[in-house]
Amino acid sequence: MSSRHLAVQVKLVRRTATPSPFTLDIGLEVPSGITILFGPSGAGKSTLLDCIAGLLRPDAGRIAVGEDALFDSDRRVDLPPQRRRTAYVFQSLALFPNMTVEENVAYGVSNVREQERSVRIGELLQAFRIENLRARNPEEISGGEKQRVALARSLVTLPRVLLLDEPLTGLDSELKASIVGDLRAWNTAQKIPILYVTHSRDEVGALGERVVVLDHGRIVSEGDPHEILAAPRSKRLALAVGFENLVDATVLELRETDGVMRVRLADSASEIEVPLGYAAPNDRVNVAIRAGDILLATQRPAGLSARNILEGKLVSLEQRGGVIVARVEAGVTLTVHVTASAARALELTVGSSIWIVVKTHSCHLVSD
Amino acid sequence: MEALLLSIRLAVCVSAILFVIGLPLAYWLAYSKWRGKFLVESVVALPLVLPPTVLGFYVLVAMGTRGPLGKFWQATFGHGLAFTFSGLVAASVLYSLPFAVQPLAASFESIDRKLLDASAVLGASALRTLRRVILPMSIPGVITALVLSFAHTLGEFGVVLMVGGNLPGATRTVSIDIYDHVQSLEYAEANRMALLLLVFSFVVLSVVYGINRRIARRIWSPWPK
Q: For residue A90, what is the nearest residue in chain B, using CA coordinates?
């Protein structure tokens, strides 16, 4: 790992948090490149960034870039934000409304020699394609342009770490991709660690080389974005990454040799097979299933490898964007996504009998 | 006329001093996280609710030859403070303090904290943040503070009477002058001065608020558009 990576070890208790005290307890290494910090709102993502930037003081821990400590409770090191050389782009962007775009970008380099300063400002304006906006005021430019200005302003200081707190919310994915592309291009030369906070699963999939998942102030999982999205570990996380079906179930029987267990859905008579988890018979577990991972059949299917086939009744059909959202009552109500053409071919009608099919490994056990 | 000029001189001095004192005080009130801050806020607001005679009485006692302020002044400048123009300035500064501090503090508080955080993260000291971000965004508050201190000092009566007395050219301000004329049944004289003060106050306020509006709109508007 590069010597300029960001190492964070922080503990912080906020007793004033509502409804209950909030504890942040994080140990994290951020290499150069984009690392996504993902989690539901209230997970502690922004609090963590505030600690790194020096806007919030952790109760204990150590924050360092390479060998340089920014904060170290054991050695009583606590650099003020001004001396940390971390760049921070807030969700609100916080552009100075009383300055032009160029003055905003120049704000952080007032102590740099005139010649170098104008070179750097020029480079950043160019890198983020905002040269033509130099003389404008922040209120006169578009949302995407503001985000470019905020990035340029924070990077002109040649920071050692870049912290981004949902800076690109509200942009369409094309614009987002273009801005992130410019950021990546800039960072191929600088190679600094970038922590990118988001609660949108689309951004996790699209942006990060690495994702760190936070919940209740702790890291609950980290690794490859696509794996994390495919198999969330907790109920809140499953909801956050977009699992439409979260059902509680009671464990009936463990089949260790097959690596599966049978569970009963909620209080119904419906039983399904799910991957084996740390559970004992009669335990309550949460099963998360994506609406797109469930198949519909108008007749009882036979000769399938899928183990879970339940009979139910179609209670509603609704077109949402390109998909048809079907709600099926099969002991519990499940949401199923099918394409419009499939819905037509099956001649789905509300009230009719229907079979649903779910593969065992499309059922994910998640904790509370 | 002498009285009006004296009043204006007093109001200018007091506004200038109040700006210098009020700025750091308002900054502290807006951004301090000290839990006992409300006590200081109450002290600053006292002149709003106290009868001018009460404030004037205590100031007079403090300025008297046996009071702490009076002794200090006597030792430093060789003359007393009570019943002088300087004494009048000191008393008026106290009396108009909330009119300078409150608009400043309110406008500092209304600035988005994220802007201050952004400034700090970009390496700016507290002083630079004040100069480049807080003050430029508080121009309406600054103007309001100056105008209110000026206008409030111009119109004060009770404190002046208690602390300054009625010495022509030194402490006889326009409001005292009017009172004198009324006491002597010189209604025409009183009316002339009163009308002058009324017109002058109105013109000053209109000009300043007009400028304030325009500047605020050009730089940054705190009012909904």
A: B114
Give B216's pLDDT tier (boundaries 50, 70, 90).
Answer: low
Q: Facing residues of A335 across strands?
A: A327
How many Cβ atoms are within 10 Å of A170's Cβ, its own excluded? 11
A97 contacts in chain B (CB < 8 Å): 137, 220
* Residue B141 clears pLDDT 90, i.e. is over it: no
Out of B124, B132, B136, closest to residue A82 by CB: B124
Please indicate if any CB of chain B lies within 8 Å of the CB of A55.
yes
Asked if residue B224 is part of any domain, the answer here is: no
Hey, which CATH number is domain A6-240, 3.30.70.20, 3.40.50.300, 3.40.50.2300, 3.40.1190.10? 3.40.50.300
* pTM higher than the cut 0.90: no
Q: What is the pLDDT of residue A3?
A: 64
- Cβ–Cβ under 8 Å, residues A327 and A334: yes
Backbone dihedral angles phi then psi of residue B154, each to the nearest 5 degrees? -60, -35
- Taking 50 as the pLDDT cut, the residues of chain A under it are 1-2
Could you tell me how many helices (H) and strands (E) chain B has, helices first? Answer: 12, 0
The string of pLDDT tens digits covering residues A13-53 is 887 766 778 899 999 999 998 999 988 888 889 999 999 99
Dihedral, CA of residue B61, residue B64, residue B66 and residue B70, to nearest 10:
110
**A 337-366: CB under 8 A from B:** none
